[in-house]
Amino acid sequence: MTTQSELIEKINEKYTKMGLDPEAFYKGLLYSKPINYWDYIEVESLLSLQKPRTDYPDEMVFIMYHQVTELLLNMMIHEMNQVCNCIDIKADFFIEKLGRMNRYIQMLANSFDVMRLGMNPKQYNEFRFSLTPASGFQCASFRFAEICSTDIENLVDTRIKNNLPANYDTTFLFENIYWQAAGKDHKTGKKSYLLNLFEEKYLEKFIAMANEYKTKNIWQKYSSMSETDKKNPALIQALKELDIEFNIKWPLVHLRAAEQYLDNGSKVIEATGGSDWKKYLHPMYQKRVFFPGLWTTDELNNWAKDYK
After folding, report:
1. How far apart are CA 235 and CA 248, in angstroms?
2. Which terminus of the chain has a smaller tally of CB atoms within 10 A, N or C?
3. Which domains can be identified in the chain, with CATH numbers?
């Protein structure tokens, strides 16, 4: 056990090495107030961020659920960045970080019943009009997680992915990325108001991030490892789990939640953003795969068919 004098000596050593006067920090401790939970977590600020646009009580559920989703996605991105920025990555570290990512996305998938079963359909189908044209499509955190995970080529619309031109740049890839299909008129190619707003806000940042992560996304980090590490069964399993959790299970629970509110059997209601949500959300149509080299041709051709 470290004695008090040893602890003081270590503190002095720490700040002296930094070229700082340890005495100033002791004085700071003398005058500063002890930290408490509510200030550290910023509870009051956090709970002030719910601003309903209607008087329907269940709109609060809708807002808070999506705020929790943003926090969990950013916890995942926090882990992803540690992998992407690790210079000499080892299998054990990689596996540990992937385990955290998978737990976060599992939490998101498992929590969808909070919204699916926790809101009154009548209330939702009335307060949702006050949100037009806002849509979960505009969740940039989800896109940041995708960019951290894989090459942008793997996110291109399936109709174009296998027929890319000989020369292309990142801007071309984003013009043909899978989620463009949710924001374009298929006949005219005209972008929706929703998509234009989204791109105005984030596209430049997406392109810059994609260029930065081109050689250090999770797929590239795995590909750069030694042949021995790449054959590590636990690492392969963790990567495949992330593909399944993020690209199959998460879209499917989102789809089931949408069906709860937007499909009454006789009529499919349009999403607030105007997308064909049934096709956009179903992974069989998107066939989004982060780590295609880990799957067989048959598995890729039948992507998500075994999941309901």
Report:
1. 19
2. N
3. 4-32 (no CATH), 61-301 (1.20.58)
